[in-house]
Amino acid sequence: DAGITQSPRHKVTETGTPVTLRCHQTENHRYMYWYRQDPGHGLRLIHYSYGVKDTDKGEVSDGYSVSRSKTEDFLLTLESATSSQTSVYFCAINPQGWTSTDTQYFGPGTRLTVL
Amino acid sequence: GQSLEQPSEVTAVEGAIVQINCTYQTSGFYGLSWYQQHDGGAPTFLSYNALDGLEETGRFSSFLSRSDSYGYLLLQELQMKDSASYFCAVRDQNTDKLIFGTGTRLQVFP
To answer: What pLDDT, in 10s, does the model give residues A8-19?
Structure first.
């Protein structure tokens, strides 16, 4: 157990509304990631962070922003949710650093539905 | 860029051996990882191959051949609890991002 929690676990929202998902870790790991998972696409990286206030884009970052003001929290924001952002969102940490054995530990996921 | 191809579904019976293949097109990567995901659950790390060859962890083994752009996950003595989706992943040397395959759904029957 890597001590990762995500909130909320389920959310239904309407198109055009802002949504913020939270990832919280208890072990002060430097690297944190946000992925989305959709049928037929596997896991795709949205944004990642390599320290407080240090973030970078992944392969599907359009429509998403992130913030990391504390080591333990990594927030994912959908500024104006669209139906194409209906997905399962996973947060992950890599306790060994960026260029290591790629062992990532995932949170339980957030199922987001945008109507 | 990177692309990783896996069969979409594999079926087998309890006690059998199954191999899940991962073929990739890449200009360079650090290593090949495998993750397991049960329905409704989160992906969990299974194995990592930094070098060519076979890595064994209990009933699971993973293989990598860089010259053939190919890897596989081998599951032995299959159990019902092995029914899950399995993803291969590589870290792109150019972008330093972890790229996942689309996943293989394994169904184990009694």
So the answer is: 999 999 999 999
Q: Is B57 on the interface with A (CB under 8 A)?
A: no
* Residues of chain B contacting residue A54, judged by C-beta atoms under 8 Å apart: none
Is the CB of residue A43 less than 8 Å away from at least one CB of chain B? Answer: yes
* Res A97: pLDDT: 60
Q: Choosing among B20, B30, B34, B45, which should be mutated to test the A contact, i.e. which has the most A CBs within 10 A?
A: B45
Report yes or no: B91 and B97 within 8 Å, Cβ to Cβ: yes
Of the pLDDT bands very low, low, confident and very high (cuts 50, 70, 90), residue A28 is confident
